[in-house]
Amino acid sequence: MNRQDMPRPGAIGRRTLLKALGAAGIATTAVAGSAAARPNPVDVVVVGAGFAGLTAARALRAKGVRSVVLEARDRIGGRTWTTTFAGELVELGGQWFADTQPLVMAELRRYGIPLIGDPDAFPDVSYYPTTSGPRRFEFMAANEHMGVLMNRLFEGTRDYFPRPFEPLHARDLIARVDRLSLRDRVDQLGLSTQDRLWLEGVTDSYSGGDGGTRGLTSMAQWWALGGHTQAGWDAQTALRPEGGMIALLNRILGDAAPDLRLRTPVATITDNGRLVEVTAKDGRRFTARAVVVAVPANVWRSIRFTAGLPAVHTAAARFGLGVPNVVKFWFRTSGDSGRVYATGKPGDPVSLVLPQRRLANGDVLSVGFSEDPALDIGDRAQVEAALRGIAPDVRLVDHVVGAWGRDPYAQGAWGMRGPDQLIAQLPAIQQPHGRLAFATGDIATGWNGAFVDGAIESGLRAAEQAWQLLR
Predict the structure, then answer these.
(1) CA-CA distance, 430 to 438, in Å (whole number)?
(2) Which of 431, 416, 445, 419 lies closest to 168 in space, CA to CA?
(3) Dihedral pair phi/psi, residue 340, rounded to 5°
(4) pLDDT digit string (tens) for 3-29?
(5) Total-model pTM
(6) SS3 state at 112
(7) What is the DSSP string of 279-303?
(8) pLDDT 10s digits, 239-284
(9) Domains of the chain from N-terminus onward
């Protein structure tokens, strides 16, 4: 696929979105983003139209509160992004749900949206790194061994995360491990060279390429939320909503019925203690009695908060909770490549390949991840070479890319705390500041960072905080 043919962040077309919104009964004139700011203050401005922001807008509407939602992109969804590739709906952002995610499951029941699996996702071929390069392994045996390594990595979570939805419940025990990075923890295990290659291939992939920068407790909480088992971990990437993430998001948007302004990136938020003025980069101004800031934590550093931010928010934005450099891409391989599962070693330009679906002509659609900023992800030849570096027999046909680390309205992919940040941040980072409430899965208590469930949790909390500010 040529670079100019690839979707870019924000490229679910306006026509597609307007059609979906029209079907939901929402006035499409609200979407254009060209109307002047309201002369009188609205109740709440929500900055960001991802799951956190739209959940907040819906919860506020249920309380009789009108909101304006400002979204920088020309689409809704934030770090979820449903598009089409090879005639199939695909997700270039967040993709999977699990039945251990209670808020997501409640939303699916509310709207009658089923979860579906991909029967063609089971690999024909699997590759894992060795000291002499990638080698084929029988998938089930290799996955079982990986489970042993993961169990060793997360040994003790039943003690320090006995109630994973209350991550500070065993505070004294958490304090002993919160200081550890993922690499620190791997160092403690005394693994063989090959086992270390396998395990750090996973931890570095989740960490944006460097397990030394991300905290053990961030990833360990996900393990605990899944039931402290490899089966629970694997289940987190097994099911997806019928119709894609956009199907659920459009239903939430339909119930929220906000004044939605796309293509409206925010430059400045000014809180004078009585009203908040939100100024878009094009100069439009919106005044509200409260604001829900529903953008990723990394994006806080791109907005000028004239009254400043609390120290905990400033530190989180400076650190960058969203992992850097991550590119997620879908790619099509010729049928004779088979359904390939592959993991790289630390430093490989592609870190993970997961087969997803087989097309009618026998070609296979797969998901890949890269954390290498030097890889020109738009260059088909470079991508194929990188894929063959971890899965030698792959024959690439074409691909499509979501470059989250290079997206100015994300500035990183999923959220993942660093060492010493769980105790330092919670619950302070969830609290309102002046007339501002904050909503992002990056600061969720439960399924934080990488999961829509955490975004919904955060949106509900921020809506209640904004409601209290209005009273």
Answers:
(1) 7
(2) 445
(3) -105, 130
(4) 333 343 333 333 333 333 333 333 333
(5) 0.91
(6) coil
(7) EETTS-EEEEEEEEE-S-GGGGGGS
(8) 999 999 999 999 999 999 999 999 999 999 999 999 999 999 999 9
(9) 7-79+244-321+414-470 (3.50.50.60), 142-231 (3.90.660.10)
